[in-house]
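Hey everyone, long-time lurker, first post.

I ran two proteins through the pipeline my lab uses and got sequence/structure pairs for each. Pasting them in order. The first:
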Amino acid sequence: MKSSTLLVLLCLQAVLVMGIFAAVAKENAAVGESKAIDINPGQLKCCTNCNFSFSGLYTCDDVKKVCDPVCKKCVAVKTYSGKMFKCTDTFLGMCGPNC
Protein backbone atom coordinates (compact mmCIF):
# COMPACT_ATOMS: atom_id res chain seq x y z
CA MET A 1 0.00 0.00 0.00
CA LYS A 2 1.32 3.41 -0.90
CA SER A 3 2.18 5.78 1.89
CA SER A 4 -0.25 8.42 0.58
CA THR A 5 -3.15 5.91 0.67
CA LEU A 6 -2.19 4.89 4.19
CA LEU A 7 -2.07 8.53 5.25
CA VAL A 8 -5.55 9.19 3.81
CA LEU A 9 -6.96 6.13 5.61
CA LEU A 10 -5.41 7.22 8.91
CA CYS A 11 -6.86 10.73 8.52
CA LEU A 12 -10.32 9.35 7.76
CA GLN A 13 -10.11 7.07 10.78
CA ALA A 14 -9.07 9.99 13.01
CA VAL A 15 -12.01 12.08 11.76
CA LEU A 16 -14.39 9.20 12.44
CA VAL A 17 -13.08 8.73 15.99
CA MET A 18 -13.29 12.49 16.69
CA GLY A 19 -16.87 12.52 15.41
CA ILE A 20 -17.83 9.69 17.75
CA PHE A 21 -16.24 11.46 20.73
CA ALA A 22 -18.00 14.72 19.82
CA ALA A 23 -21.38 12.97 19.64
CA VAL A 24 -20.84 11.29 23.02
CA ALA A 25 -19.73 14.57 24.61
CA LYS A 26 -22.81 16.37 23.25
CA GLU A 27 -25.08 13.63 24.63
CA ASN A 28 -23.40 13.79 28.06
CA ALA A 29 -23.77 17.58 28.15
CA ALA A 30 -27.49 17.30 27.44
CA VAL A 31 -27.87 14.78 30.26
CA GLY A 32 -25.86 16.96 32.64
CA GLU A 33 -28.10 19.96 32.05
CA SER A 34 -31.06 18.21 33.62
CA LYS A 35 -29.04 17.49 36.76
CA ALA A 36 -28.10 21.11 37.41
CA ILE A 37 -28.48 22.35 40.97
CA ASP A 38 -31.45 24.62 41.51
CA ILE A 39 -29.97 27.51 43.49
CA ASN A 40 -32.25 29.58 45.69
CA PRO A 41 -31.25 33.25 45.29
CA GLY A 42 -32.65 34.16 48.72
CA GLN A 43 -30.91 34.23 52.09
CA LEU A 44 -32.03 32.38 55.24
CA LYS A 45 -32.58 34.48 58.36
CA CYS A 46 -30.39 32.15 60.39
CA CYS A 47 -28.69 28.75 60.19
CA THR A 48 -26.97 26.81 62.98
CA ASN A 49 -26.12 23.55 61.13
CA CYS A 50 -24.64 24.92 57.92
CA ASN A 51 -23.04 22.71 55.25
CA PHE A 52 -20.80 25.14 53.35
CA SER A 53 -18.69 24.10 50.36
CA PHE A 54 -15.74 25.90 48.78
CA SER A 55 -17.83 26.41 45.63
CA GLY A 56 -19.81 29.06 47.50
CA LEU A 57 -22.92 26.91 47.85
CA TYR A 58 -24.45 25.85 51.14
CA THR A 59 -27.39 23.97 52.61
CA CYS A 60 -28.83 24.36 56.07
CA ASP A 61 -29.62 21.22 58.09
CA ASP A 62 -31.61 23.02 60.78
CA VAL A 63 -34.88 21.34 61.76
CA LYS A 64 -37.52 23.87 62.81
CA LYS A 65 -41.20 24.01 63.75
CA VAL A 66 -41.90 26.31 60.79
CA CYS A 67 -39.95 26.48 57.56
CA ASP A 68 -38.26 29.77 56.62
CA PRO A 69 -40.40 31.78 54.15
CA VAL A 70 -37.42 32.05 51.77
CA CYS A 71 -37.30 28.24 51.42
CA LYS A 72 -38.72 26.79 48.18
CA LYS A 73 -38.46 23.08 49.09
CA CYS A 74 -39.35 22.25 52.66
CA VAL A 75 -39.64 18.61 53.80
CA ALA A 76 -41.31 17.20 56.88
CA VAL A 77 -39.01 15.49 59.37
CA LYS A 78 -40.25 13.10 62.02
CA THR A 79 -38.74 13.80 65.46
CA TYR A 80 -39.45 12.70 69.03
CA SER A 81 -41.15 16.02 69.72
CA GLY A 82 -43.41 15.68 66.68
CA LYS A 83 -43.41 16.83 63.08
CA MET A 84 -40.72 19.39 62.21
CA PHE A 85 -39.50 20.89 58.91
CA LYS A 86 -36.18 21.15 57.10
CA CYS A 87 -35.31 23.37 54.12
CA THR A 88 -33.59 21.35 51.39
CA ASP A 89 -32.68 24.31 49.16
CA THR A 90 -29.15 25.06 48.03
CA PHE A 91 -28.11 28.67 48.56
CA LEU A 92 -25.33 30.77 47.09
CA GLY A 93 -23.14 32.81 49.42
CA MET A 94 -22.26 32.58 53.10
CA CYS A 95 -24.32 30.96 55.87
CA GLY A 96 -26.50 33.26 57.93
CA PRO A 97 -26.01 33.92 61.65
CA ASN A 98 -26.68 31.14 64.16
CA CYS A 99 -30.28 30.72 65.26
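...and the second, right after it:
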Amino acid sequence: MRLVWRSIGGIEEGTLGGSVRLLEAACATALHYADLVHGALADQGYYESHAQNKTTEEICTIVNNLEYVRRSLSEYDDDHILNDENSRQLVRGALGTLECRSVRAAVPLAVRARPPLRKAVFHLAWSPDSLPTQQAITPLLEFLDQHLSSLNTWLLPRAFTRALAACWNAVLKEVSSQADSGGAEKPRVYHHRLKEALDLLAEFFHAEGKGLPMTDVHNTEWKRLEQRMQYHQAPTEELLELWLEDRLADQARTPLPSPYGSILIRVYFNHDSLCVEILSARDVIPLDPNGLSDPFVVLELLPKRLFPKTHEQSTNVQKKTLNPVWDECFEFAVSLEACRSPQATLALSVWDRDVLTADDFAGEAFVPISRVPGVNSHAPPDPLRPIELPLMQLHDRGHPILQILESRNTDKMAIEFVKKQKLRFAE
Protein backbone atom coordinates (compact mmCIF):
# COMPACT_ATOMS: atom_id res chain seq x y z
CA MET A 1 0.00 0.00 0.00
CA ARG A 2 2.90 2.36 0.76
CA LEU A 3 4.21 1.60 -2.76
CA VAL A 4 0.85 2.64 -4.22
CA TRP A 5 0.96 5.96 -2.36
CA ARG A 6 4.56 6.61 -3.45
CA SER A 7 3.42 6.00 -7.03
CA ILE A 8 0.68 8.58 -6.69
CA GLY A 9 3.19 11.09 -5.39
CA GLY A 10 5.43 10.46 -8.39
CA ILE A 11 2.77 10.92 -11.05
CA GLU A 12 3.63 13.81 -13.32
CA GLU A 13 1.18 16.38 -14.61
CA GLY A 14 -0.80 15.21 -17.62
CA THR A 15 -1.30 11.69 -16.32
CA LEU A 16 -4.51 12.45 -14.42
CA GLY A 17 -6.21 9.21 -15.48
CA GLY A 18 -3.41 7.07 -14.10
CA SER A 19 -3.26 9.13 -10.93
CA VAL A 20 -6.99 8.67 -10.29
CA ARG A 21 -6.72 4.91 -10.83
CA LEU A 22 -3.82 4.66 -8.40
CA LEU A 23 -5.73 6.82 -5.94
CA GLU A 24 -8.74 4.52 -6.23
CA ALA A 25 -6.44 1.56 -5.60
CA ALA A 26 -4.96 3.27 -2.51
CA CYS A 27 -8.39 4.06 -1.07
CA ALA A 28 -9.65 0.54 -1.82
CA THR A 29 -6.55 -0.98 -0.18
CA ALA A 30 -6.91 1.20 2.92
CA LEU A 31 -10.61 0.35 3.28
CA HIS A 32 -9.92 -3.33 2.66
CA TYR A 33 -7.37 -3.32 5.45
CA ALA A 34 -9.83 -1.57 7.79
CA ASP A 35 -12.54 -4.09 6.87
CA LEU A 36 -10.17 -7.01 7.52
CA VAL A 37 -9.31 -5.62 10.96
CA HIS A 38 -12.97 -4.91 11.72
CA GLY A 39 -14.04 -8.40 10.57
CA ALA A 40 -11.34 -10.12 12.60
CA LEU A 41 -12.26 -8.14 15.72
CA ALA A 42 -15.96 -8.89 15.23
CA ASP A 43 -15.21 -12.64 14.88
CA GLN A 44 -13.29 -12.51 18.16
CA GLY A 45 -16.25 -10.89 19.95
CA TYR A 46 -14.17 -7.74 20.41
CA TYR A 47 -17.09 -5.31 20.20
CA GLU A 48 -19.66 -7.33 22.14
CA SER A 49 -17.27 -8.11 25.03
CA HIS A 50 -15.59 -4.68 24.85
CA ALA A 51 -12.25 -6.44 24.24
CA GLN A 52 -12.16 -8.14 27.63
CA ASN A 53 -9.74 -10.70 26.17
CA LYS A 54 -7.21 -8.00 25.24
CA THR A 55 -4.93 -5.78 27.27
CA THR A 56 -5.11 -2.02 27.00
CA GLU A 57 -1.80 -2.04 25.13
CA GLU A 58 -3.18 -4.51 22.57
CA ILE A 59 -6.22 -2.30 21.99
CA CYS A 60 -3.95 0.70 21.52
CA THR A 61 -1.91 -1.22 18.95
CA ILE A 62 -5.07 -1.97 16.93
CA VAL A 63 -6.17 1.65 17.11
CA ASN A 64 -2.70 2.90 16.14
CA ASN A 65 -2.50 0.59 13.11
CA LEU A 66 -5.78 1.99 11.82
CA GLU A 67 -4.53 5.50 12.52
CA TYR A 68 -1.30 4.88 10.56
CA VAL A 69 -3.40 3.90 7.52
CA ARG A 70 -5.71 6.89 7.91
CA ARG A 71 -2.76 9.26 8.39
CA SER A 72 -0.96 7.99 5.31
CA LEU A 73 -4.02 8.40 3.13
CA SER A 74 -4.74 11.85 4.57
CA GLU A 75 -1.51 13.14 2.98
CA TYR A 76 -3.40 13.20 -0.32
CA ASP A 77 -6.31 15.22 1.04
CA ASP A 78 -4.66 18.31 -0.35
CA ASP A 79 -6.03 20.67 -2.99
CA HIS A 80 -2.56 20.94 -4.57
CA ILE A 81 -2.51 17.17 -5.14
CA LEU A 82 -6.22 16.53 -5.67
CA ASN A 83 -7.26 19.08 -8.26
CA ASP A 84 -10.19 16.89 -9.30
CA GLU A 85 -13.47 17.02 -7.30
CA ASN A 86 -14.15 13.30 -7.77
CA SER A 87 -10.71 12.47 -6.38
CA ARG A 88 -11.27 14.71 -3.38
CA GLN A 89 -14.61 13.06 -2.63
CA LEU A 90 -13.04 9.62 -3.03
CA VAL A 91 -10.24 10.33 -0.55
CA ARG A 92 -12.44 12.15 1.95
CA GLY A 93 -15.04 9.39 1.85
CA ALA A 94 -12.35 6.80 2.58
CA LEU A 95 -10.93 8.95 5.38
CA GLY A 96 -14.38 9.26 6.93
CA THR A 97 -14.81 5.48 6.92
CA LEU A 98 -11.36 4.97 8.45
CA GLU A 99 -12.18 7.54 11.12
CA CYS A 100 -15.36 5.65 12.03
CA ARG A 101 -13.49 2.33 12.17
CA SER A 102 -10.83 3.87 14.42
CA VAL A 103 -13.39 5.42 16.75
CA ARG A 104 -15.27 2.13 17.07
CA ALA A 105 -12.09 0.16 17.71
CA ALA A 106 -11.21 2.58 20.53
CA VAL A 107 -14.58 2.25 22.31
CA PRO A 108 -13.33 -0.45 24.75
CA LEU A 109 -10.76 2.02 26.09
CA ALA A 110 -13.57 4.14 27.48
CA VAL A 111 -15.82 1.21 28.42
CA ARG A 112 -13.26 -0.49 30.62
CA ALA A 113 -12.77 2.79 32.48
CA ARG A 114 -16.46 2.96 33.41
CA PRO A 115 -16.44 0.77 36.60
CA PRO A 116 -13.67 2.75 38.35
CA LEU A 117 -15.23 5.97 37.06
CA ARG A 118 -18.60 4.95 38.49
CA LYS A 119 -17.05 4.20 41.87
CA ALA A 120 -15.11 7.48 41.97
CA VAL A 121 -18.15 9.58 40.95
CA PHE A 122 -20.29 7.80 43.59
CA HIS A 123 -17.80 8.64 46.34
CA LEU A 124 -17.60 12.22 45.06
CA ALA A 125 -21.36 12.66 45.18
CA TRP A 126 -21.80 11.08 48.61
CA SER A 127 -18.83 12.73 50.34
CA PRO A 128 -19.62 14.48 53.65
CA ASP A 129 -21.18 17.92 53.29
CA SER A 130 -18.21 19.41 55.15
CA LEU A 131 -15.70 18.20 52.52
CA PRO A 132 -15.06 20.83 49.80
CA THR A 133 -15.66 19.70 46.21
CA GLN A 134 -11.99 20.34 45.34
CA GLN A 135 -11.02 17.67 47.89
CA ALA A 136 -13.92 15.29 47.23
CA ILE A 137 -13.03 15.12 43.53
CA THR A 138 -9.33 14.26 44.13
CA PRO A 139 -9.68 10.43 43.80
CA LEU A 140 -11.57 10.85 40.50
CA LEU A 141 -8.97 13.22 39.06
CA GLU A 142 -6.12 10.94 40.18
CA PHE A 143 -7.70 7.96 38.41
CA LEU A 144 -8.29 9.99 35.24
CA ASP A 145 -4.74 11.32 35.28
CA GLN A 146 -3.28 7.81 35.60
CA HIS A 147 -5.60 6.29 32.98
CA LEU A 148 -5.07 9.06 30.43
CA SER A 149 -1.33 9.23 30.99
CA SER A 150 -1.08 5.54 30.05
CA LEU A 151 -3.15 6.08 26.91
CA ASN A 152 -1.06 9.11 25.98
CA THR A 153 2.05 6.92 26.16
CA TRP A 154 0.62 4.15 23.96
CA LEU A 155 -1.50 6.04 21.41
CA LEU A 156 -0.64 8.23 18.45
CA PRO A 157 -1.66 11.90 18.98
CA ARG A 158 -4.89 11.83 16.96
CA ALA A 159 -5.86 8.45 18.40
CA PHE A 160 -5.25 9.81 21.89
CA THR A 161 -7.48 12.81 21.17
CA ARG A 162 -10.26 10.39 20.18
CA ALA A 163 -9.72 8.38 23.35
CA LEU A 164 -9.74 11.58 25.40
CA ALA A 165 -13.10 12.58 23.89
CA ALA A 166 -14.52 9.10 24.53
CA CYS A 167 -13.33 9.22 28.14
CA TRP A 168 -14.93 12.65 28.60
CA ASN A 169 -18.24 11.28 27.32
CA ALA A 170 -17.91 8.34 29.72
CA VAL A 171 -17.37 10.77 32.61
CA LEU A 172 -20.44 12.79 31.55
CA LYS A 173 -22.56 9.63 31.47
CA GLU A 174 -21.44 8.60 34.97
CA VAL A 175 -22.06 12.05 36.43
CA SER A 176 -25.46 12.15 34.70
CA SER A 177 -26.37 8.72 36.04
CA GLN A 178 -25.39 9.75 39.56
CA ALA A 179 -27.29 13.03 39.32
CA ASP A 180 -30.49 11.28 38.22
CA SER A 181 -30.23 8.30 40.57
CA GLY A 182 -33.17 7.66 42.85
CA GLY A 183 -33.22 5.78 46.12
CA ALA A 184 -31.97 7.20 49.42
CA GLU A 185 -32.52 10.82 50.37
CA LYS A 186 -29.61 12.84 49.06
CA PRO A 187 -27.36 15.20 51.06
CA ARG A 188 -28.23 18.88 50.97
CA VAL A 189 -25.27 19.76 48.74
CA TYR A 190 -25.58 16.68 46.48
CA HIS A 191 -26.42 18.31 43.14
CA HIS A 192 -24.56 21.52 43.91
CA ARG A 193 -21.42 19.45 44.46
CA LEU A 194 -21.90 17.53 41.22
CA LYS A 195 -22.35 20.83 39.36
CA GLU A 196 -19.11 22.19 40.84
CA ALA A 197 -17.36 18.92 39.98
CA LEU A 198 -18.61 19.12 36.40
CA ASP A 199 -16.97 22.53 36.01
CA LEU A 200 -13.69 21.22 37.48
CA LEU A 201 -13.79 18.19 35.17
CA ALA A 202 -14.35 20.42 32.15
CA GLU A 203 -11.18 22.35 33.03
CA PHE A 204 -9.29 19.08 33.57
CA PHE A 205 -10.13 17.75 30.10
CA HIS A 206 -9.44 21.12 28.48
CA ALA A 207 -6.05 21.24 30.25
CA GLU A 208 -5.44 24.92 29.49
CA GLY A 209 -5.73 24.29 25.76
CA LYS A 210 -3.55 21.17 25.70
CA GLY A 211 -6.47 18.75 25.89
CA LEU A 212 -9.86 18.88 24.22
CA PRO A 213 -10.97 22.17 22.66
CA MET A 214 -13.56 23.85 24.86
CA THR A 215 -16.09 23.46 22.05
CA ASP A 216 -15.65 19.66 22.36
CA VAL A 217 -15.79 19.82 26.15
CA HIS A 218 -19.02 21.81 26.05
CA ASN A 219 -20.65 19.28 23.72
CA THR A 220 -24.31 18.33 23.46
CA GLU A 221 -24.13 15.85 26.36
CA TRP A 222 -22.43 18.44 28.57
CA LYS A 223 -25.11 21.04 27.81
CA ARG A 224 -27.84 18.50 28.51
CA LEU A 225 -26.23 17.52 31.81
CA GLU A 226 -25.63 21.12 32.87
CA GLN A 227 -29.30 21.90 32.24
CA ARG A 228 -30.38 18.87 34.28
CA MET A 229 -28.08 19.97 37.11
CA GLN A 230 -29.76 23.37 37.15
CA TYR A 231 -33.16 21.69 37.19
CA HIS A 232 -32.14 19.38 40.05
CA GLN A 233 -31.06 22.37 42.14
CA ALA A 234 -34.21 24.37 41.41
CA PRO A 235 -37.21 24.30 43.80
CA THR A 236 -40.40 22.71 42.48
CA GLU A 237 -42.17 26.07 42.04
CA GLU A 238 -39.38 27.27 39.77
CA LEU A 239 -39.50 24.06 37.70
CA LEU A 240 -43.25 24.49 37.19
CA GLU A 241 -42.61 27.98 35.82
CA LEU A 242 -39.83 26.69 33.55
CA TRP A 243 -42.25 24.05 32.28
CA LEU A 244 -44.81 26.76 31.54
CA GLU A 245 -42.17 28.78 29.70
CA ASP A 246 -41.30 25.69 27.66
CA ARG A 247 -44.95 25.11 26.72
CA LEU A 248 -45.27 28.71 25.55
CA ALA A 249 -42.18 28.19 23.38
CA ASP A 250 -43.71 24.99 21.97
CA GLN A 251 -46.87 26.90 21.11
CA ALA A 252 -44.87 29.60 19.31
CA ARG A 253 -43.39 26.85 17.13
CA THR A 254 -46.75 25.20 16.43
CA PRO A 255 -48.34 26.40 13.18
CA LEU A 256 -52.01 26.58 12.33
CA PRO A 257 -53.77 24.40 11.48
CA SER A 258 -52.73 22.10 14.33
CA PRO A 259 -53.44 18.35 14.22
CA TYR A 260 -55.37 18.81 17.49
CA GLY A 261 -57.47 21.73 16.29
CA SER A 262 -57.55 25.33 17.50
CA ILE A 263 -59.42 27.57 19.92
CA LEU A 264 -60.73 31.11 19.32
CA ILE A 265 -60.74 33.53 22.28
CA ARG A 266 -60.60 37.17 23.37
CA VAL A 267 -58.53 38.29 26.35
CA TYR A 268 -58.22 41.81 27.80
CA PHE A 269 -57.78 43.57 31.11
CA ASN A 270 -60.67 45.81 32.18
CA HIS A 271 -60.62 47.79 35.45
CA ASP A 272 -59.61 45.21 38.09
CA SER A 273 -60.38 42.07 36.14
CA LEU A 274 -58.88 39.91 33.44
CA CYS A 275 -61.68 39.16 31.00
CA VAL A 276 -61.57 36.00 28.92
CA GLU A 277 -64.13 35.20 26.24
CA ILE A 278 -64.13 31.60 25.06
CA LEU A 279 -65.71 31.86 21.63
CA SER A 280 -65.30 28.57 19.79
CA ALA A 281 -62.97 25.80 18.68
CA ARG A 282 -62.58 23.96 15.43
CA ASP A 283 -61.35 20.53 14.40
CA VAL A 284 -61.20 19.22 17.97
CA ILE A 285 -60.01 15.61 17.90
CA PRO A 286 -62.77 12.96 18.16
CA LEU A 287 -62.59 11.12 21.48
CA ASP A 288 -65.94 9.31 21.59
CA PRO A 289 -66.90 6.06 19.81
CA ASN A 290 -69.32 8.00 17.58
CA GLY A 291 -66.42 9.93 16.03
CA LEU A 292 -67.33 13.12 17.86
CA SER A 293 -66.60 14.71 21.25
CA ASP A 294 -68.39 16.53 24.06
CA PRO A 295 -65.88 19.37 24.53
CA PHE A 296 -65.53 21.90 27.32
CA VAL A 297 -62.73 24.28 28.30
CA VAL A 298 -60.97 24.69 31.66
CA LEU A 299 -59.37 28.10 32.35
CA GLU A 300 -56.59 28.65 34.88
CA LEU A 301 -54.18 31.49 35.73
CA LEU A 302 -50.57 30.46 36.35
CA PRO A 303 -48.24 30.45 38.22
CA LYS A 304 -50.05 30.22 41.52
CA ARG A 305 -47.60 32.51 43.31
CA LEU A 306 -48.89 35.37 41.16
CA PHE A 307 -52.56 34.40 41.36
CA PRO A 308 -53.00 32.63 44.74
CA LYS A 309 -56.67 33.55 45.14
CA THR A 310 -57.93 32.57 41.69
CA HIS A 311 -59.55 29.22 40.91
CA GLU A 312 -60.14 27.20 37.79
CA GLN A 313 -63.24 28.06 35.77
CA SER A 314 -64.83 26.04 32.98
CA THR A 315 -67.28 26.43 30.12
CA ASN A 316 -70.42 24.44 29.54
CA VAL A 317 -70.17 21.15 27.65
CA GLN A 318 -71.06 21.21 23.96
CA LYS A 319 -72.50 17.84 22.95
CA LYS A 320 -71.46 15.73 19.96
CA THR A 321 -69.36 18.18 18.01
CA LEU A 322 -65.81 18.78 16.79
CA ASN A 323 -66.46 22.46 16.17
CA PRO A 324 -68.02 23.71 19.42
CA VAL A 325 -69.31 27.25 19.94
CA TRP A 326 -69.40 28.50 23.54
CA ASP A 327 -69.53 32.33 23.48
CA GLU A 328 -68.95 32.45 27.23
CA CYS A 329 -67.23 35.20 29.20
CA PHE A 330 -65.15 34.76 32.38
CA GLU A 331 -63.59 37.25 34.76
CA PHE A 332 -60.64 36.84 37.10
CA ALA A 333 -60.23 39.44 39.84
CA VAL A 334 -56.48 40.07 39.67
CA SER A 335 -54.12 43.00 39.94
CA LEU A 336 -52.61 44.75 36.96
CA GLU A 337 -49.19 44.33 38.60
CA ALA A 338 -49.55 40.53 38.67
CA CYS A 339 -50.68 40.50 35.04
CA ARG A 340 -47.61 42.47 33.98
CA SER A 341 -45.26 39.77 35.25
CA PRO A 342 -43.49 38.00 32.34
CA GLN A 343 -44.51 34.67 33.87
CA ALA A 344 -48.25 35.48 34.06
CA THR A 345 -50.08 32.99 31.84
CA LEU A 346 -53.63 31.99 31.02
CA ALA A 347 -53.79 28.22 30.54
CA LEU A 348 -56.66 26.77 28.49
CA SER A 349 -57.30 23.04 28.29
CA VAL A 350 -59.97 21.39 26.17
CA TRP A 351 -61.52 18.16 27.46
CA ASP A 352 -64.09 15.65 26.29
CA ARG A 353 -66.75 15.03 28.94
CA ASP A 354 -67.34 11.36 29.75
CA VAL A 355 -70.07 10.21 32.10
CA LEU A 356 -68.82 6.79 33.22
CA THR A 357 -65.07 7.32 32.92
CA ALA A 358 -62.57 10.13 33.42
CA ASP A 359 -62.74 13.05 31.00
CA ASP A 360 -60.36 12.78 28.03
CA PHE A 361 -57.77 15.43 27.24
CA ALA A 362 -58.11 17.00 23.78
CA GLY A 363 -55.52 19.78 23.78
CA GLU A 364 -54.19 22.88 25.49
CA ALA A 365 -53.16 26.44 24.67
CA PHE A 366 -51.55 29.31 26.55
CA VAL A 367 -51.75 33.10 26.55
CA PRO A 368 -48.94 35.30 27.92
CA ILE A 369 -51.04 37.76 29.91
CA SER A 370 -48.44 40.53 29.89
CA ARG A 371 -49.09 40.97 26.14
CA VAL A 372 -52.89 41.32 26.17
CA PRO A 373 -54.76 44.63 25.65
CA GLY A 374 -55.15 46.61 28.86
CA VAL A 375 -51.99 45.09 30.31
CA ASN A 376 -49.55 45.80 27.53
CA SER A 377 -49.69 49.38 26.26
CA HIS A 378 -48.20 48.19 22.94
CA ALA A 379 -50.89 45.53 22.37
CA PRO A 380 -53.27 45.91 19.41
CA PRO A 381 -55.69 48.76 20.17
CA ASP A 382 -58.77 46.64 19.40
CA PRO A 383 -59.43 44.34 22.38
CA LEU A 384 -62.37 42.82 20.57
CA ARG A 385 -60.18 41.21 17.93
CA PRO A 386 -60.22 37.44 18.65
CA ILE A 387 -57.06 35.38 18.62
CA GLU A 388 -56.81 31.83 17.36
CA LEU A 389 -54.43 29.49 19.18
CA PRO A 390 -53.29 26.01 18.15
CA LEU A 391 -54.23 23.21 20.53
CA MET A 392 -51.33 21.01 21.62
CA GLN A 393 -50.69 17.71 23.34
CA LEU A 394 -47.53 16.47 25.05
CA HIS A 395 -45.15 14.13 23.24
CA ASP A 396 -41.83 14.08 25.12
CA ARG A 397 -42.22 11.59 27.98
CA GLY A 398 -38.51 11.95 28.67
CA HIS A 399 -38.68 15.71 29.27
CA PRO A 400 -36.04 16.47 31.94
CA ILE A 401 -38.30 18.70 34.03
CA LEU A 402 -40.98 16.01 34.16
CA GLN A 403 -38.42 13.32 35.01
CA ILE A 404 -36.89 15.36 37.82
CA LEU A 405 -40.28 16.27 39.27
CA GLU A 406 -41.29 12.61 39.13
CA SER A 407 -38.20 11.71 41.17
CA ARG A 408 -39.38 14.01 44.00
CA ASN A 409 -41.66 11.35 45.42
CA THR A 410 -42.10 13.09 48.79
CA ASP A 411 -43.05 16.46 47.26
CA LYS A 412 -46.83 16.75 47.08
CA MET A 413 -46.76 19.63 44.57
CA ALA A 414 -44.44 17.71 42.24
CA ILE A 415 -46.50 14.51 42.52
CA GLU A 416 -49.75 16.30 41.69
CA PHE A 417 -48.22 18.14 38.75
CA VAL A 418 -46.73 15.00 37.20
CA LYS A 419 -50.04 13.17 37.64
CA LYS A 420 -51.84 16.01 35.88
CA GLN A 421 -49.39 16.17 32.98
CA LYS A 422 -49.45 12.42 32.33
CA LEU A 423 -53.09 12.80 31.26
CA ARG A 424 -51.99 15.18 28.51
CA PHE A 425 -49.74 12.95 26.44
CA ALA A 426 -50.72 12.08 22.91
CA GLU A 427 -51.74 8.46 22.48
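Reply from user beta_strand_b:
Welcome! Quick read of the second one: Strands lie at 262-270, 273-282, 295-302, 313-314, 325-333, 345-352, 360-368, 387-390. The two ends are 57 Å apart (CA to CA).
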